[in-house]
């Protein structure tokens, strides 16, 4: 059979598309400029037996039954839910910022610093928290990570964090979260 589809990039996106195409009887060629599959979620084993996430730490999360059952065809997962701590004013604090911290720093009657429809990342962040908290937790690391002023970034990017008041300190609240233990099927 002739190759019908050429997919450039074997990360989660390319690999998932390729898998669906093959399972629907299509002939697929997948190329990657890296010498391995998996894109940024690739991992490898250190001779000491430790598994290393080559491009930085990753874990899988979804609230979709469909996606969770799809990925479980290829690996067993062990439960893993991250809690992140960040150094703020010489103290380790939870990220995303928890309401109890804001109450301690600003007072129980704190209010978000922005109201209305945010037009950029900075306004979207300020619509969730007081300015003092935004400057402590968000502005510096965002501008360092993206290399541009926070007000030039899209408001959508602030969708990745929220201030929670219920004491749940997990980074993500997806129903299913985990790290693959072993591959169960390679074909
Ligand atoms: C440090 C870090 C931590 C992260 N942690 C998490 C996490 O915990 N959970 C989570 O869900 N997401 C996490 N992410 C995001 C996650 O890595 C991405 O959402 C996911 O890997 C995207 O998959 P992708 O296939 O779209 O892209 P990629 O994984 O980037 O794959 C693209 C592939 O295409 C190849 N490619 C690109 N251009 C060419 C070309 N011209 N020719 C040939 N090959 C090409 C690349 O080599 C690469 O292999 C993290 C990202 C980073 C950087």
**Overall pLDDT score:** 94
**Percentage of residues in helical conformation:** 25-40%
Rg, Cα atoms, Å: 21 Å
The low-confidence runs, each spanning 5 or more residues with pLDDT under 50, are none
Task: Count the beta strands.
Answer: 9
How far is the N terminus from the C terminus?
19 Å
Strand content: 15-25%
Q: What overall geometry do the principal axes of the alpha carbons give?
A: elongated
Bound molecules: flavin-adenine dinucleotide
Task: Explain this structure.
- The chain has helices at 12-23, 65-71, 99-106, 121-126, 131-146, and strands at 5-8, 28-31, 43-45, 51-53, 60-62, 75-79, 84-88, 91-95, 176-183.
- The chain is an alpha+beta fold and 187 residues long.
- The chain folds into two domains: 5-58, no CATH class; 84-160, no CATH class.
- Strands 5-9-6 form a three-stranded antiparallel sheet. Strands 1-2 form a two-stranded parallel ribbon.
- It is elongated.
- The relative contact order is 0.15.
- The mean pLDDT is 94.
- Flavin-adenine dinucleotide binds next to α1.
In brief, what are we looking at here?
This protein is of the alpha+beta class.
List keywords for this structure.
alpha+beta, 26% helix, two-stranded parallel sheet, binds flavin-adenine dinucleotide
Compile the SSE list and pairings.
Layout: E1 5-8, H1 12-23, E2 28-31, E3 43-45, E4 51-53, E5 60-62, H2 65-71, E6 75-79, E7 84-88, E8 91-95, H3 99-106, H4 121-126, H5 131-146, E9 176-183
Parallel strand pairs: 1-2
Antiparallel strand pairs: 3-4, 5-9, 6-9, 7-8
Bound molecules: flavin-adenine dinucleotide.
Flavin-adenine dinucleotide (FAD) is lined by residues 8-14, 31-34, 39-41, 55-56, 58-59.
């Amino acid at each position: 059979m002739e190759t019908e589809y050429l997919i450039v990039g074997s990360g989660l996106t390319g690999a998932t598309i390729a898998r669906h195409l093959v399972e629907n009887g299509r002939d697929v060629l997948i190329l990657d400029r890296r010498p391995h599959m998996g894109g940024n979620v690739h991992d490898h084993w250190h001779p000491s037996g430790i598994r290393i996430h080559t491009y930085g730490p990753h874990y899988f999360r979804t609230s979709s039954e469909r996606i969770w059952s799809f990925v479980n065809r290829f690996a067993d997962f062990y439960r893993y839910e991250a809690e992140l701590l960040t150094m703020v004013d010489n103290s380790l604090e939870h990220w995303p910022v928890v309401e109890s911290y804001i109450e301690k720093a600003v007072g129980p009657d704190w209010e978000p610093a922005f109201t209305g429809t945010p037009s950029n990342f900075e306004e979207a962040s300020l619509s969730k928290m007081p300015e003092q908290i935004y400057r402590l937790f968000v502005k510096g690391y965002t501008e360092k990570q993206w290399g541009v002023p926070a007000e030039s970034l899209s408001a959508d990017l602030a969708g990745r964090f929220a201030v929670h008041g219920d004491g749940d300190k997990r980074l993500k609240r997806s129903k299913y979260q985990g790290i693959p233990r072993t591959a169960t099927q390679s074909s």
